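Human: We require from you a protein record containing the residue sequence and its fold in token form, and nothing else.

Assistant:
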Amino acid sequence: MWLRAKKLSVKWKKRELRRIRRVNQLLIAENKRMQELVDDFLLTAEVDNNHVRQMNEAIQGMNDLNLDGNYNITTVNQVQPCCSSGSAADGDNNGYNRGGGDGNNGGGHHE
């Protein structure tokens, strides 16, 4: 009787170990897949950041050419305040939409 109980105990422990191994295999596979997803996300984010960097470099180049500084463009990753006077954010752009000027400077008046 005791031997039979011991064999059953061993049998149940083996089953439990098989179940634990299977769960571990599934968790390892899930962790691997999650790491692949994270890697894909990071790669995508890096590609997006490269585009933002290129846009900012182009904007900086345009701003560098704008010597008087009246029409500088805010870089892509900056937030413009919605009520800053004379900014592109409020549609004014320092007189560009008001007319006047020689058409070469966006309508701003220069002496």
